[in-house]
């Protein structure tokens, strides 16, 4: 699985960080998303998918490995 | 359309019979009339959007925002000026474009997940104190008045550096300013003026002696033009945070607890597995049957929804609460599933204008629930569910009181 984030779309709601702080963080100065792990561990995949689906701005994209 | 034709339209928000059940019109509009014509409390006409995908699309469309007073938009409220959303606050705060982005991101750093986690112990202590006071008053008690209503004001006052002794006045101003029908225009104007005076004094005090609070930090900030924020901007930000964060969260705490106690097997499920608190909070947000009017969007271009072209100049009312029960988006949407995950509900809106305070609201709801489960595991409703009474006339709906025993 590969994850990407769109900083321009991000509205800083922090939903992803509350769900999975090991993969997502927020910039200190404006709360915009910071991706910590482009290729998260398999144990985190469920929560990564959840973070993408509940992101209010649709700023997280998950690419599943074929 | 003439005034008399508009008067024939269904009035929105719809009225529901039961406190925790949705109005029947939501399902009817979703099924038969996904873009419906309705009459608002002001008498003005709006287009009502009720399906999940449509609500999400309209709210996420960067072209459209909440109407500004300059737009010839439908007004929500029946006071002369149309309530707080048509007030000076809406005029001073940038609603779109780079200025909105700058404002939002400057405030955004106060609402990061890290800050929220740092606030948790303080919120838990405040909730614990309020629960203890309610218990000391003896059963039955009103959980709305005792816990749900004061807690978010305490939290916001803390963030704004407002002394504990002024919290009660904040709660009253917030209540009046958010009302659509319960107060007169004069009462609304008085509350707004009084609150404005208080904030100007508070800002002067913070300029003289800065604290660790949000307003002290904003005083030291500069806008996109390099100039310090004006007092009008600072006041509007304070008012905005109070009215956005108080009544909404207060009512949601009470509605959430009511939903969980109305079928007590839900409460018992949480007692048995407190790790469900997070998903239970999301599910309560999704199922909120009394969420108020929803979000307004003023269409500045023609826009097609479900084959209907809404002409430029239309005021669209997006009912997130109706969308959250759309079977096109959720399995068994009427069921309260405390484990539902993912739960991409729209209670906080969507897109660039999604609720800025949502991480704070989530934190307050989660902490309140954790504190209640720990301190009052025997909590039950003190009246039958049918005895719960709705409170109407607010941009956010709720319960008049939540009588409980423990």
What sort of overall outline of chain B do the alpha carbons produce when their principal axes are compared?
Answer: globular
Q: Which structural class do the helices and strands of chain B define?
A: alpha+beta
CATH secondary-structure class of chain A: Alpha Beta
Query: Largest sheet of chain B, described in full?
Result: 4 strands, mixed
Flag low-confidence runs of chain B. none
Q: Total strand count of chain B, please?
A: 11
The CATH topology annotation of chain A reads as: Alpha-Beta Plaits
In total, the number of domains of chain A comes to 1
- The best one-word shape of chain A is globular
CATH C-level name of chain B: Mainly Alpha
Description:
The complex is a heterodimer of chains A (66) and B (406). Chain A is α+β, with helices and mostly antiparallel strands and 66 residues long. Chain A has a single domain (2-63), classed as Alpha-Beta Plaits, CATH 3.30.70.20. Chain A is built from two helices and four strands. In chain A, the strands form two sheets. Chain A has a two-stranded antiparallel sheet with strand order 1-4. A two-stranded antiparallel sheet of chain A has the order 2-3. In chain A, strand 2 and strand 3 form a beta hairpin. The longest helix of chain A has 10 residues, at 45-54. The model of chain A has no long low-confidence stretch (mean pLDDT 92). By secondary structure, chain B is α+β, with helices and mostly antiparallel strands. Chain B has one domain (3-405): Cytochrome p450 (Orthogonal Bundle). Chain B is built from 17 helices and eleven strands. Chain B has helices at residues 3-7, 24-32, 52-60, 88-92, 97-108, 113-136, 143-148, 150-160, 167-178, 185-208, 214-219, 231-245, 247-262, 264-272, 277-286, 320-323, 358-375; strands at residues 35-39, 45-49, 141-142, 295-298, 303-305, 308-310, 315-318, 380-381, 390-391, 398-399, 403-405. Chain B has a four-stranded mixed beta sheet, covered by helices on one side. In chain B, strands 3-11-8 form a three-stranded antiparallel beta sheet. In chain B, strands 5-6 form a two-stranded antiparallel ribbon. In chain B, a hairpin with a 6-residue loop joins strand 9 (390-391) and strand 10. The longest helix of chain B has 24 residues, at 113-136. Chain B is globular. The model of chain B has no long low-confidence stretch (mean pLDDT 89). At the A-B interface, helix 1 and helix 2 of A face helix 5, helix 6 and helix 17 of B.
